[in-house]
Design brief:
Layout lengths: L7 H10 L16 E2 L10 H17 L14 H13 L6 E3 L3 H12 L8 E5 L4 H13 L4 H4 E4 L9 H6 L5 E7 L11 H10 L3 E5 L11 H4 L3 E4 L14 E4 L44 H14 L4 H23 L5 E2 L12 E4 L3 H10 L2 E2 L1 E3 L3 E4 L8 H16 L15
Helix pairs in contact: 1-13, 2-10, 3-10, 4-5, 11-13
InterPro entries: Kynureninase, PyrdxlP-dep_Trfase, PyrdxlP-dep_Trfase_major, PyrdxlP-dep_Trfase_small
Catalytic activity: L-kynurenine + H2O = anthranilate + L-alanine + H(+); 3-hydroxy-L-kynurenine + H2O = 3-hydroxyanthranilate + L-alanine + H(+)
Pathway: Amino-acid degradation; L-kynurenine degradation; L-alanine and anthranilate from L-kynurenine: step 1/1; Cofactor biosynthesis; NAD(+) biosynthesis; quinolinate from L-kynurenine: step 2/3
């Protein structure tokens, strides 16, 4: 990496030229602490709060008629938000629906697309996957009478932090029915080559889907162009939808018309939903993969949050994210190398998502020390500190101050006063 000035003045100069700075004031907490945990939970914005209050007001004002009346009609709000979100994932509006939770949506997609037959019975994932994805995959294998020990293939990591795409492709053998991978690895921040992996899967006649939890809202996608079969993601990280905000999913247009694996009230074609027939007529688009009534109060903040995304482009957001993470990696390398703090996120821009992972044996205690200094990081066992600059509210000066805090914590061995034990939520 090239050497950079390690002064705070240099960080301030970068901020003066940075785009997107107009959004920082939208997030009150951004000025109250150094918040580098947006890849776990994004901050509350003024607009998200206002749209939540607007939905509460429609409930107060209209009661049951809120489903069909008011500024944000509840009945098709999930579809409306799906249309707003589609540009962020490179999809057609009717291919995206805001619904459910991340894992519920994965269960829906597995129930729909995992159809073991003949020798094709295995599901291919990776050894670094988020645990919930593995739990869901194992559930569906068991429901089909298969043992996860035999039918779940997890591509190993050579270094414990990253994956080889060639290894993944080599594992796409004739007995694989479905591939499920992350776009960005949740620990290290490695960005996988989605078009390359999708093409390889389809050449082998394998369905492939992606968990986009750590990429939506911080980097562009072209799901329709790439030919991805399905995808799903949460909305409480970079999209700042709030804790437990309603998730989203994508189903390629060529799969529309397939019966949802898990049908429910809101799977219905909306024009006949209230006919109350016992014969389901699925929605003709991604709406068919809804199950139950949308959680309006958990959906509402997304109205305001996505409104901000309509005022910029995901390419501008990605460009700033790349520069923020590049600066963070260079600064950490320059100032923390004497303390055996390692950057384990890939250096190459094309292989890097929106957060940076630092590895150190004392990571859990370093994180505790940081929080006492009003710096909010994220710990992942056994030795990773995750730092996620959010392009809408994180400044270069925030990054400089964060690395400076880590330097002092390491130089003064401040972490040693804390127990070597993670909190219940880390």
């Amino acid at each position: 990496m090239t050497e950079i000035p390690v002064t705070r003045a240099f960080a301030e100069s970068l901020d003066r030229a940075a785009p997107l700075t107009q959004f920082r004031d939208e997030f009150p907490m951004a000025s109250q602490c150094l918040y580098l945990d947006g890849n776990s939970l994004g901050l509350l914005s003024r607009r998200a709060e206002a749209s939540l209050l607007a939905i509460l007001d429609s409930w107060r004002t209209y009661g049951i008629d809120g489903w069909s009346t008011g500024s944000y009609r509840w009945f098709d709000l999930s579809e409306h938000l799906g249309h707003m979100m589609a540009p962020l994932v490179g999809a057609q509006p009717h291919e995206v629906i805001v619904t459910g939770s991340t894992t519920v949506n994965l269960h829906q997609l597995l129930a729909t697309f995992y159809r073991p037959h003949g020798e094709r019975r295995k599901i291919l994932a990776d050894a670094l996957a988020f645990p919930s994805d593995i739990y869901a995959i194992s559930s569906h294998l068991l429901l089909h009478g298969l043992s996860p020990d035999e039918a779940l293939v997890q591509v190993p990591s050579h270094d414990g932090f990253t994956l080889s795409e060639d290894d993944i492709i080599d594992a796409m053998t004739p007995d694989v029915a479905l591939v499920l991978l992350p776009s960005v690895l949740f620990v290290s921040g490695q960005l996988l080559d989605i078009p390359k992996l999708t093409e390889a899967a389809h050449e082998r006649h394998i369905i492939i889907g992606f968990d986009l939890a750590h990429s939506v809202g911080v980097l562009p996608h072209a799901l329709s162009q790439w030919g991805v079969d399905f995808a799903f993601w949460c909305t409480y990280k970079y999209l700042n939808g709030g804790p437990g905000s309603v998730a989203a999913l994508y189903v390629a247009e060529r799969h529309h018309g397939i019966r949802p694996g898990l049908a429910g009230w809101f799977s219905s074609d909306k024009t006949v939903q209230f006919d109350m027939a016992h014969q389901l007529i699925p929605a003709p688009d991604a709406g068919a993969f809804q199950i139950g009534t949308p959680h309006l109060l958990s959906l509402a903040p997304l109205i305001g949050s996505l409104d901000m995304y309509s005022e910029t482009t995901i390419d501008i957001i990605r460009a700033k994210s790349v520069q923020l993470t590049h600066y963070l990696m260079e600064l950490a390398t320059a100032r923390l190398k004497d303390f055996n703090v390692r950057v384990v996120t890939p250096q190459e821009e094309a292989q890097r998502g929106g957060h940076v992972a630092l590895a150190h044996p004392e990571a859990v205690r370093i994180c505790k020390a940081l929080k006492d200094r009003q710096v909010i990081p994220d710990y992942r066992p056994p030795e990773v500190i995750r730092l996620a600059p959010s392009p809408l509210y994180t400044t270069y000066t925030d990054i400089w101050d964060t690395v400076n805090h880590i330097w002092h914590i390491m130089h003064e061995r401040e972490y040693a006063q804390y127990p070597l034990k993670r909190e219940i939520v880390s």
